[in-house]
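Support request from a user on the community tier.

User writes: "When I paste my structure tokens into the form, the page sometimes reloads and wipes my input. The last time it worked, I copied everything first. Here is what I submitted, just in case something in the input itself triggers the reload:"
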């Protein structure tokens, strides 16, 4: 039996990302994102972009842009996590 890769509360789809963050996609109040309804092998369209600023001694921008297809996250080359940029990996279990 396959493991769940995401959760859905009726409004938002949540999933763990290889960047270390839990990403949330609004499926109800925004018509931007679509989900195939699968918990074991989710596909989310279009690409997801998450950016946040982190104030350390200097301002750092964390960018995670990726596509989710059949339970695999394909990271864009402009991700700030250099270990993930341009690579693909299976979604972690929820």
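"...and here is what came back when it finally went through:"
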């Amino acid at each position: 039996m396959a493991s769940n890769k995401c959760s859905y509360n009726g409004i938002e789809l949540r999933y763990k990302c290889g960047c270390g963050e839990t990403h949330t996609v609004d499926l109800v109040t925004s018509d931007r994102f679509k989900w195939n309804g699968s918990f074991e092998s989710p596909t989310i369209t279009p690409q997801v972009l998450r950016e946040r600023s982190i104030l350390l001694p200097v301002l750092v921008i964390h960018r995670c842009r990726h596509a989710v297809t059949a339970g695999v996250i394909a990271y864009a080359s402009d991700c700030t996590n250099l270990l993930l940029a341009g690579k693909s990996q299976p979604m972690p279990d929820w």
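Agent notes: The reload is a front-end session timeout and is unrelated to the input. The two ends are 14 Å apart (CA to CA). The chain is about 0% helix and 50% strand. Escalated to web team.
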